[in-house]
Amino acid sequence: MRGDNLKDGIENADGCVAAPDVVCFRDTAFAHTYPGEAMPVTMKDWLFIGHAGDSVEFRVPTGGYIWTNVGVERDAAHNNVDYFRYRLTRDRLIHLWITLDGVSDSIPYTLSFRRIRPQSANVIAVKGLWSTLRLDSTRNSDRFSVTPIALDPLSDPSDWVVGPGSYNVPMLGDSLYKICRIPCTIVDTVRLSAGKPVIKRL
Predict the structure, then answer these.
(1) Which of 22, 44, 46, 60 could form a disulfide with 96 if both were Cys (CB 3.0 to 4.6 A apart)?
(2) CATH of region 127-202
């Protein structure tokens, strides 16, 4: 569901200014080559923790595009756009795929994140820093559960599943996570720290 009350929010991420409900993440995306793609794709993956009752908005600079595991927004011509708005009905992981136009090995960009939530909500605060979590596997079909311990127990584990890859993960008030490869016979615990990559081979 889209957060209609966000329609007057951030115009774009180029001039993102941090505010009580806005966090600006300034990062660099790198070009990757994928089977079936004629040209390299400049992209970055992010994982955000979403809370029930939140209305969230993500934006990247003009010329960038956002896809997520909970949906995608398109313009009147059905083209992908540089923003995504969503209202959450339950706690879950939000996986963002960000791509950026340009012929370069690396492109600096800003991701803006806005969250509007009920004043009474008890949520984990998002900071303006992030860690990189890399989940390695010999099989692309493997799936991993990435869950914040602060929200345990979870109502639906399937809402916290991602594939192998490298992800930017924003720093939270408590950045302790449980990670396992589905069906989670062995569970590992990791603490993410800003600017310090974590590599897990499960």
Answers:
(1) 46
(2) 2.60.40
Tally of residues, the chain: 202
* Each residue's pLDDT tens digit, 18-69: 788 888 999 999 888 777 777 788 899 999 988 888 899 999 988 899 999 9
Q: What is the CATH number of domain 1-123?
A: 2.60.120
- If one counts every other C-beta atom within 10 angstroms of the C-beta of residue 6, the result is 18
Residues in a beta bridge with 172? 126
Q: What is the pLDDT of residues 92-143, one digit of tens each?
A: 999 999 999 876 788 999 999 998 876 645 555 676 789 999 999 988 899 9
- Answer whether 167's CB lies under 8 Å from 48's CB: no
Residue found under tokens 């345990």: 152
**Domain extent listing, the chain:** 1-123, 127-202
